[in-house]
Amino acid sequence: MLPSQRQEFILRRIEAEGSVKSIELAREFEVTNETIRKDLEALAGEKRVIRIHGGATRITDARHDMPLPARQSTNRFEKSVVARAAVQLIQPNDTIFLDASSTVLTMTNYLPQVPLTVLTNAHHVIVALGGRPNCDLICTGGAYEERSRSYVGAMAEDALKRFVIKWLFVGVDGLHHLLGASEVNPGQAVLKERLIPRAENVCVVCDSTKLEQKSPFIFGEISQFSVLVTDDRAASGLLKLYERAGIRVIVAELPKEA
Predict the structure, then answer these.
(1) Residue 258: pLDDT band by 50, 70, 90 thresholds?
(2) Residue 74: phi, psi to the nearest 5?
(3) FRET label pair with 42: which of 4, 95, 157, 216, CA 20 to 30 Å apart?
(4) Strands in 84-242 per DSSP E
(5) Partner residues linked to 20 by β-bridges
(6) Sign (positive or negative) of CA dihedral 116, 117, 122, 128
(7) Is the separation of the CB atoms in 103 and 207 below 8 Å?
(8) pTM for this structure?
């Protein structure tokens, strides 16, 4: 069977059953787990499925990788409120990492005026914080992505190996209480996945529209996150699902007229 035929069969199975397991597919097709992994990654790359640990699941809420200016203009007010709440976690002399998401970029407007070491792969974070007093600003470098205006790839990942990160702040395209955190951008997803184990604390910052959503590339299991900062439009019952998973939930209150 050709890979394309096998992938179409896998896709039909996922659409019918909701999810598949790699080990079962390998046994059924009499191929290696590595072959099935490549099939699932190919389907995820085409945004036809979502990769999860040990298999794949169908996409119920497909999202597109919008350019940074478009992302910045979406839910601007909610992002501002969430960003203000997230920076309260930062203490003097912390080493923090700010990713290339629009909500994390908004945090640069509200960072406390204390000594900090700021690591980032985001060009716009460098622009926003350049020249700031008491701020040691370090950019990863790497392969530049115009769409996200950030740096990804092996060089970006290697640049961060020597740092102990007190707070890793990440945005998401989707956060699901079972599947974890996901991204539409594979380069960003890989960088975040490899940074999470190196951070003492990992904070997800996102507005409530991202909760219980799924995107093609999973970069972290729910148990790997320390804190979730979101807005008060999230249902209390939903937030309890994250708390039961061991995440501290900080709810930023939106003014009544918002």
Answers:
(1) very low
(2) -90, 125
(3) 157
(4) 95-98, 116-120, 135-139, 143-145, 150-152, 165-170, 174-176, 180-183, 199-205, 217-220, 227-231
(5) 56
(6) positive
(7) yes
(8) 0.74
pLDDT tens by residue, 213-245: 888 889 999 999 999 999 998 999 999 999 999
Q: Residue 250, Cα to own-chain centre: how many angstroms? A: 18
- The contacts of residue 144 (CB under 8 Å, 6+ apart) are 123, 150, 151
Going from the C-alpha of 17 to that of each of 7, 182, 192, 201, 230, the distances in angstroms are 15, 21, 30, 36, 32
CA pair distance 210, 9, nearest whole angstrom: 30
Tokens 């699941």 belong to 57
Please give the structure tokens belonging to residue 87: 């920076």
Give tens-digit pLDDT for 34-48: 999 899 988 887 777
Q: What is the largest CA-CA distance in the chain?
A: 62
